[in-house]
């Protein structure tokens, strides 16, 4: 439920591209030198995911909704009432 004139933000990111790269390096050591974490993040934040969220907003009839995405902020679905 969203109050009148309310905003909803769903999603996430890593703060900045530099911070994400630092986390990827750390996670590589936890994953036996593989890029499993990096690949999973790239898959989750790719254009196809962006388009799926956009399509879901349209299907749900949420005209005020949109998807924000870039390397610094990650990916967020934003809706307002």
Features:
81 residues, alpha+beta, three-stranded antiparallel β-sheet, 3 helices, 3 strands, elongated
Write a short abstract of this structure:
The chain is 44% helix and 22% strand. It contains three helices and three strands, in the order βαααββ.
Description of the structure:
The chain is an alpha+beta fold and 81 residues long. It has one domain (7-80). The chain is elongated and about 50 Å long. It has helices at 17-30, 36-44, 47-59; strands spanning 7-12, 66-70, 74-80. Strands 1-3-2 form a three-stranded antiparallel sheet, covered by helices on one side. Strand 2 (66-70) and strand 3 (74-80) form a beta hairpin.
Write the layout of secondary structure elements.
Layout lengths: L6 E6 L4 H14 L5 H9 L2 H13 L6 E5 L3 E7 L1
Antiparallel strand pairs: 1-3, 2-3
The major β-sheet equals: 3 strands, antiparallel
Helix and strand sequence = EHHHEE
As a whole number of angstroms, the C-alpha radius of gyration is 15 Å
> What is the total number of structural domains?
1
Structural class comes to alpha+beta
């Amino acid at each position: 439920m969203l109050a009148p004139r309310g905003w909803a933000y769903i999603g996430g990111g890593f703060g900045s591209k530099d911070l994400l790269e630092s986390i990827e390096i750390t996670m590589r050591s936890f994953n036996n030198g593989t890029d499993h974490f990096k690949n999973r993040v790239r898959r989750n934040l790719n254009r196809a995911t962006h388009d799926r969220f956009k399509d879901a907003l349209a299907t749900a009839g949420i005209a005020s909704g949109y998807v924000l995405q870039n390397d610094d902020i990650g990916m967020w679905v934003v809706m307002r009432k």
